[in-house]
Amino acid sequence: MPPPGPATMGASGRLLHAVLMGAPGSGKRTLALRITKHFQLQKFSSGDLLRDNMLRDTEFGVLAKVFMDQGKLIPDDIMTRLTLHELKNFTRESWLLCGFPRTLRQAEALQRVYQIHLVMNLSVPVEVIRQRLSARWIHPSSGRVYNLEFNPPKAVGVDDLTGEPLVQREDDRPETLNERLKAYEDQTKPVLEYYRQKGVLETFCGTETDKIWPCVYAFLQTKVPQIDQKASVTP
Length: 235
What we know:
Number of domains: 1
CATH topology: Rossmann fold
Radius of gyration: 18 Å
Distance between the termini: 23 Å
InterPro entries: Adenyl_kin_sub, Adenylat/UMP-CMP_kin, Adenylate_kinase_lid-dom, AK3/Ak4_mitochondrial, P-loop_NTPase
Largest sheet: 5 strands, parallel
Number of helices: 8
CATH superfamily: P-loop containing nucleotide triphosphate hydrolases
GO cellular component, one term: mitochondrial matrix
CATH class: Alpha Beta
Function: Involved in maintaining the homeostasis of cellular nucleotides by catalyzing the interconversion of nucleoside phosphates. Has GTP:AMP phosphotransferase and ITP:AMP phosphotransferase activities.
Subunit structure: Monomer.
Structural class: alpha/beta
Family: Belongs to the adenylate kinase family. AK3 subfamily.
């Protein structure tokens, strides 16, 4: 992660703490990249944090790898400790969490340390997600994602930057996808209700990221400064 810079305030003059939620394949990563390109928010992706810590063999990375090698979910407390440890270095910046929290316990632990001002939830039909994920391939070491339908690699089966082979995640395959989506819904339903009761939840519905993005952009314009005030909504 880059070093902290000058304090970045939301539109109200305070630091903004935001969360981006959405099922696997809902377009979180694409939207998070667009948000941080246009707005003064530091992005924290739970997947990126895990990969970085595993590559560096940190305490968190070693612990996470043990569970992942066994095909198990990483326990709440490890993900919470990892995320809070990283956020300690960014006390003077507004930030966007992507992929965390995913459980009510994680949300409550986060709230005990930071006030969450805004939660954006992406609601995409299950059939659209199934179609997206069946065509999704990833570069494991970087986390770069390709889609054979709308974002294919330049050469079939290899990463654009490294030339290394792409893989399809085991849990993106049709036989495991339904179970994965059901698990996500069961986990996050209480989280969404938790934030709804706090009055900070905003849901964006759609079938295409390019159509959801202008709504997210217009909404955030009232919440956090843009990097370039003259910039357009163009991704």
